[in-house]
Amino acid sequence: MAQEVEHRKEVYVIKAGKASGISTATPVEQKEIGKAVMEFMYDYKYLTDTTDVSRNETDRMTLQVTYGMSKFTSFRAMQIDSLIRVSTAEQIRANPDSYIGGETFSIYKNYPQGRFTVIDKVSTDWFHYEEDIPVQEWILTDDTCNILGYECKSAVCDFRGRRWTAFYTDSVPVADGPWKFGGLPGFIMQVYDEGHQYEFTCVGINSKADRVMTIPEVPFNKTTRPKFYATKLRFDTDPFGYMMNVNGVNVQVKGADGQPRTDITQPRTLQYDYIERDWK
Length: 280
Fold this sequence. Notes:
Elements: E1 2-7, E2 10-15, E3 22-23, E4 30-35, E5 38-47, E6 56-66, E7 69-74, H1 75-85, H2 89-94, E8 106-109, E9 115-122, E10 125-132, E11 139-147, E12 150-159, E13 162-169, E14 187-193, E15 198-206, E16 212-216, E17 221-222, H3 225-237, H4 239-247, H5 262-265
Parallel strand pairs: 10-17
Antiparallel strand pairs: 1-2, 2-3, 4-16, 5-6, 5-15, 6-7, 7-8, 8-9, 9-10, 11-12, 12-13, 13-14, 14-15
Helix pairs in contact: 3-4
């Protein structure tokens, strides 16, 4: 069920029960930082309830690669941003589900040089933090598989609270991978954690890409990785309270009978762990 509220001539579309399902009718200005020479599409799957492995979320992600730099972001979010630019508030209110979806994070590797830049959004607030390029101590194994016709070798590592298995190929002239992964002698086609709570699988390769790579031009909250996760947890466990106390938006949710749905607006407990467990 989607609910919406108008505030400051913007439309906030809120997907009840999923904190990240928030969109506004204001498109985000983007700054060009390069042009991709290759693009890789990934299916990103993750559990939102670790007690029910049949319930997972999916998103289509894209890894844009250029010389010395890459960007990993949601392809769905890119499509929604383009749709918002040509839609009116009335159109959004008429079909709110079309404007919800897509992961909010983007990861820029080697931008600035020698660092990662992570951009993410909590409610309507944009956050920015940098970190040193993390060291992933991969152990090569004998397992193999075939993904998109590429013979892949495997490796495992412990990284930020999870044990990961990756399958990589040396037939792609790029040493990179999805999310924050890298450091293998080839390109990472698939990577998943023990228990398959998080999984990235390459489903397409464009070796003649020419799409520009951008970064949002917005007022960022400069932060650190632990502080960002603490803010994210505050929002994910009490999204309506966060919006009221931080954004000044008072959201009232009503059922089909017109009566307030206070059960939806109450704080809740997350049924899953974040992809990085070591931030606390």
